[in-house]
From TrEMBL:
One term under GO cellular component: cytosol
MF terms in GO: phenylacetyl-CoA 1,2-epoxidase activity
Stated name of the protein: Ring-1,2-phenylacetyl-CoA epoxidase subunit PaaA
Stretches assigned to coiled coil: none
Origin: domain of life: Bacteria
Xref: NCBIfam families: PA_CoA_Oxy1
GO terms, biological process: phenylacetate catabolic process
Pfam family, one: PaaA_PaaC
Length: 311
């Protein structure tokens, strides 16, 4: 039976078709999807923290409303993605516990602090810009629920990226102090946003299998290159300098030459020793504990509904 099922699965992948929750799938396929989708969901939820830090201090009502909308969007992205992961057989509680107990990965980028308002611009432009480069190909991921969740998420991410660009543009057209604040934020977020795409291809243990299963469509380095190619002309429009003196386009290779990325910083952040790792988990735990009454009320309501249905 399993040979036939494996052959059917291989055929669906070979034809670049979708795998749906009810289809037979190799345990390793299920496992790597739970790994990636749950980590993606955790990233969205933790990603709410750096920005929510500025909602009460936004410089205008317009900026406050836009930032609140963006943070709410991230919460929604997290819920779509947790729901997609649940179709693979892991429960929401289990994923919550993994994150809260520090056993789950989430994107390195959210372990950096946001000391100025310009960080809201740099996050929108750089972090959401990187997320778009990474997430557009994921709309075609072979696992149906994941690809479909991505379509909705990508539509909202493009608004996130544009509002970040606009914040930086406004600052760069402002006073000298505002221009310095914007450039400082770009200096601090540029390299960590390149690390979002993951380690170099020759140090990426999951890439080969993920690409064979049409989960990952482009390699970490390819998407990093695509992202830099998107940033260079936009940085010119903004009038900001990308903090890499060796950045240049190589006509022959069609690639951007760039300085070495500091992978020890990446490893430190992944090991939990980034600038804000402890704070992010502390806030997540606190929010989970403070939200316990909502979960209890929802369970009690569902129990009563079920009882009524039996009357
Ligand atoms: N942060 C944390 N961990 C990372 C990472 C990063 N930036 N990049 C890689 N890793 C981890 C991987 O998870 C893997 O560890 P694991 O096996 O324990 O999961 C290890 O480093 C080796 O990396 P690989 O390249 O082998 O792993 P992948 O093939 O999974 O590639 C990835 C990494 C490109 C991040 C891929 O998992 C992916 O595309 N994930 C979905 C996208 C995602 O999670 N994006 C987060 C961006 S933030 C966001 O979306 C919010 C937005 O609204 C701003």
């Amino acid at each position: 039976h399993d040979e036939a099922a494996q052959a059917l699965f291989d055929d669906l992948i070979a034809k670049d078709s979708r795998i749906e929750p009810r289809d037979w799938m190799p345990e390793a396929y299920r496992k790597t999807l739970i790994r990636q989708i749950s980590q993606h969901a955790h990233s969205e939820i933790i990603g709410m923290q750096p920005e929510s830090n500025w909602i009460t201090r936004a410089p205008s009502l317009k900026r406050k409303a836009i930032l609140m909308a963006k943070v709410q969007d991230e919460a929604g992205h997290g819920l779509y993605l947790y729901s997609a992961a649940q179709t693979l057989g892991i429960s929401r509680e289990e994923m919550m516990d993994q994150l809260i107990e520090g056993r789950a990965r989430y994107s390195s980028i959210f372990n950096y602090t946001t000391p100025t308002w310009a960080d809201m611009g740099a996050i929108g432009w750089l972090v959401d810009g990187a997320a778009i480069c990474n997430q557009v190909p994921l709309c075609r991921a072979s696992y149906g629920p994941y690809g479909r969740a991505m379509v909705r998420i990508c539509k909202e991410e493009s608004f996130h990226q544009r509002q970040g660009f606009e914040i930086l543009l406004e600052l760069m057209q402002g006073t000298e102090a505002q221009r310095e604040m914007a450039q400082d934020a770009v200096n601090r977020w540029y390299w960590p946003s390149l690390m979002m795409f993951g380690p170099p291809d020759d140090q990426s243990p999951n890439s080969a299998q993920s690409m064979a299963w049409n989960i990952k469509r482009f390699s970490n380095d390819d998407l990093r290159q695509r992202f830099v190619g998107m940033l260079v002309p936009q940085a010119e429009v903004l009038g900001v300098t990308l903090p890499d003196p060796n950045l240049r386009f190589d006509e022959e290779t069609g690639q951007y030459e760039m300085s070495e990325i500091d992978w020890t910083e990446f490893d430190e952040v992944l090991a939990g020793r980034g600038p804000a790792n402890a704070e992010r988990l502390r806030r997540r735990r606190q929010a989970h504990e403070e939200g316990a009454w909502v979960r209890e009320a929802a369970h009690e309501y569902a129990r009563k509904q079920a009882e009524r249905a039996l009357e």
